[in-house]
Amino acid sequence: MSQSSRSILDFKLKILDWSDRVSVILRRLAIALLTWIIFSWGLLPEVALAQTRTVPPPQETKTQTPPVQSSIQPYLDRVIKQLTEFRLDNGLKFIVLERHQAPVVSFLTYANVGGVDEVDGKTGVAHFLEHLAFKGTTRIGTQDYKKEKPLLEALEQLNAQIKTAKADGRKAEVIRLQTEFEKVESQAAKLVKQNELGQIVEQAGGVGLNANTSTEATRYFYSFPANKLELWMSLESERFLDPVIRREFYKEKDVILEERRMRVENSPIGLMVEKFIDTAYKVHPYRRPVIGYDEDIRNLTSEDVQNFFNTHYVPSNLTIAIVGDVNPAQVKKLAQTYFGRFQAKTKAVEKIPVEPSQKQTREVTLQLPSQPWYLEGYHRPAVTHPDNAVYEIIGSLLSDGRTSRLYKSLVEKQRLALSAQGYSGFPGDKYPNLIFFYALTAPGHTVDELAVALRQEIDKLKTEPVATADLERVKTQARASLLRTLDSNTGMAQQLLEYEVKTGSWRNLFKQLDDIAAVTTTDIERVAKETFTPENRTIGKLLSKEA
């Protein structure tokens, strides 16, 4: 899967005979900003949204992966021997992979819920909940919960009264209530032990405490020394058994609103990406930003977040991967002790509308103080489709790195663009999604020139067979990139869960490697003809406007 198997984009720009180095730096920053905006839609699980990171994880001992040209079967056979999976009576599933090369263990809790599971009017609630999951429990993160609880309840009451007073136009009453709110909030803050969860983890030798929310999932992860398995069981089970959703709720709302301002309201390319997705989709919730709309975030209540937690964070909607120096029998025993306390509940099943086939070209144009950008996307099927590997190869062939066709043509040869990149699987891949391309115009050129040049490269895939050497190169790059993510415990945990939850079995991770190897030039031509049509095209143009 492109969003978890690719390394961070290469953003170094080739300087096009400019003498103005300041302009070059500004354009580099612009490209980095677009990548950050795109990542915030949930493309790469490594990009975290909750500001809870402790310290960078240590260099993990790497396992030997097979040569990319050989069959994946021997590697799969070894994984099968080392992997144990079990499900608790309450429905919570564990995948345990033994790797005894180093005394470390990586843990990943995968909640099968993201932005697509929200209802209209309450966007951003999944991401909001991810932030609040680091605030602690009735025992962690507080000086005295018995004193804190009534203050948190008072804040909810005051907030409701403030909303009513504002609606009624009682300005004096609003001022009085806000003064009282700030007073109570200050009292509650004095009882909070800031980042106590992170401190416990770090003091016990844990690293990489973090989380992220995407369109389709919310992931919580960190690593511990092998002898801290039971501590992780205790902390992680308490975290989702007894969370205090109301703690610092309003403070965190301000943090999230500021995130949105930076990424969208104050970012021309961020606003462009949001408008582009909204144009490409008409009914599917992929059209909504994971961070949520400004008005929705402002109107979210702690009760909204609590209800979302109660209905989506049920055991049968959680899957946990544990990879490293562990004993599966001990893991199962401890899991039953700690996670067996969770009550079995029926998980909420949202009715995700099916996006209708696009019948004509769609276009959105914005004119903002920015360098000109060109965006183009085409609808493609979900990760479970038989042609998924073909789309991955097409994406790599066109836009993966400096050897890609778009970079060599648009950036190096024609010098129309400062950068030309793309993704297959945007803004997610659990449902039918987009193969997406974007380019930053070079000085003296226009987005229309970029559009023509980009489409010429795309059209070649329909009419000119890909050279054997080129196909083998991108196959090798794609398989090697995916295999590299499996070298670390964290990467393996991530990939096992992505395939387990999205495709129904972690074994499909290894099937994807064989599928990549099986892609032919005929496959590429067939899929290109089916996909890259004017009717299936969405265009985005961000034009320069003087500030």
Main sheet?
A: 6 strands, mixed
Tertiary shape: globular
**Overall mean pLDDT:** 87
Could you give the distance between the termini?
40 Å
Number of strands: 11
Strand order of the largest sheet: 1-2-6-3-5-4
Number of helices: 20
Class by alpha and beta content: alpha+beta
CA radius of gyration is 24 Å
Low-confidence stretches: 1-31, 42-69
In a few lines, what is going on in this structure?
This protein is of the alpha+beta class. The protein has helices spanning 2-5, 21-39, 73-82, 125-132, 145-168, 171-189, 196-203, 229-241, 249-265, 268-280, 294-299, 302-312, 328-338, 388-399, 405-413, 447-463, 468-485, 489-503, 508-518, 521-531; strands at 83-87, 93-98, 104-111, 207-213, 218-225, 318-324, 362-368, 373-380, 417-426, 433-441, 537-544.
How is this structure best described in words?
The structure is a single chain. The chain has 547 residues and is of the alpha+beta class. Helices cover 47% and strands 15% of the residues. The protein has helices at 2-5, 21-39, 73-82, 125-132, 145-168, 171-189, 196-203, 229-241, 249-265, 268-280, 294-299, 302-312, 328-338, 388-399, 405-413, 447-463, 468-485, 489-503, 508-518, 521-531, and strands spanning 83-87, 93-98, 104-111, 207-213, 218-225, 318-324, 362-368, 373-380, 417-426, 433-441, 537-544. The two termini are 40 Å apart. The relative contact order is 0.17.
